[in-house]
Q: What sequence folds into this?
């Protein structure tokens, strides 16, 4: 089976078709680190900011449609529902209307208004400004992957909307892997699938527990991303390196290589 987008051989993981020559070149190189794995939310795009904006637009759409409630009251209720049901629950707005004792007859209209506003916000989804240029540059010397907790279609939707899926060699989502990031087996599974050794891989993400501690337990190197707008930007880390933007990643990888005596280098081109 083949799709226009992927060269897919039965029993193998998906490989973007045009990357085969590049893959072979990178695998054949003597670079100690060949695989970079990227967390998605608050690492490649401002997830927290986006969620806040989408929620605000959805609630304002309900108010505009005639819901008799104050924005702050609605937001507090909605956040409580999201906290109890999780962000991937699909009936947040139904529960909100039930709590407000809105007659069921009107639910569909309010939900449609909210969902439309929420989905319209998705069209504004853009990566952090440092993402495109750095991924294109890093692709020269590394194989690039996404590793994310969540629903597979939802995470792919984000990548496609941002126009960046083809910069990656593969995408791994917990729903499909049936393991979550907090389990080191999540990373072990990825490493096995891509045919790498853990010590050839660097995981880059903003969550200490899921992106750093768990990846290191699986034997990978880890870089903690501290985007100033991420709610996880503070706190101690056991990561090998700390960065605030992808502009700092190449230098961080060089330091990891040199620090661990993998092979001293002055520039990534020497690796
Ligand atoms: Mg994240």
A:
């Amino acid at each position: 089976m083949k799709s226009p987008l992927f060269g897919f051989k039965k029993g193998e993981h998906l490989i973007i078709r045009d990357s085969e020559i590049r893959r072979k070149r990178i695998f054949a190189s003597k670079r100690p680190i060949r695989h970079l794995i990227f967390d998605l939310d608050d690492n490649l795009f401002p997830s927290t900011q986006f969620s806040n904006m989408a929620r605000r637009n959805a609630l304002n759409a309900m108010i505009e449609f005639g819901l008799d409630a104050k924005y702050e009251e609605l937001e507090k209720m909605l956040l409580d529902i999201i906290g109890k049901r999780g962000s991937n629950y699909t009936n947040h707005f139904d529960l909100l209307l039930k709590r407000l004792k809105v007659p069921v007859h009107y639910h569909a209209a309010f939900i449609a208004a909210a969902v439309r506003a929420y989905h319209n916000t998705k069209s504004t989804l853009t990566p952090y400004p440092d993402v495109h240029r750095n991924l294109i540059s890093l692709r020269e010397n590394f194989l690039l992957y996404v590793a994310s907790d969540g629903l597979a279609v939802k995470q792919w939707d984000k990548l496609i909307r941002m126009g960046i899926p083809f910069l990656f060699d593969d995408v791994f989502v917990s729903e499909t892997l049936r393991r979550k990031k907090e389990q080191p087996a999540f990373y072990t599974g990825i490493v096995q699938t891509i045919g790498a050794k853990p010590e050839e891989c660097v995981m880059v993400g903003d969550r200490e527990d899921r992106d750093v501690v768990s990846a290191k337990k699986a034997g990978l190197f880890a870089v903690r991303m501290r985007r100033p707008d991420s709610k996880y930007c503070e706190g101690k880390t056991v990561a090998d390196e700390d960065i605030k933007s992808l502009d700092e990643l190449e230098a961080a990888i060089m330091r990891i290589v040199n620090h661990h005596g993998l092979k001293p280098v002055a520039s990534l081109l020497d690796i």
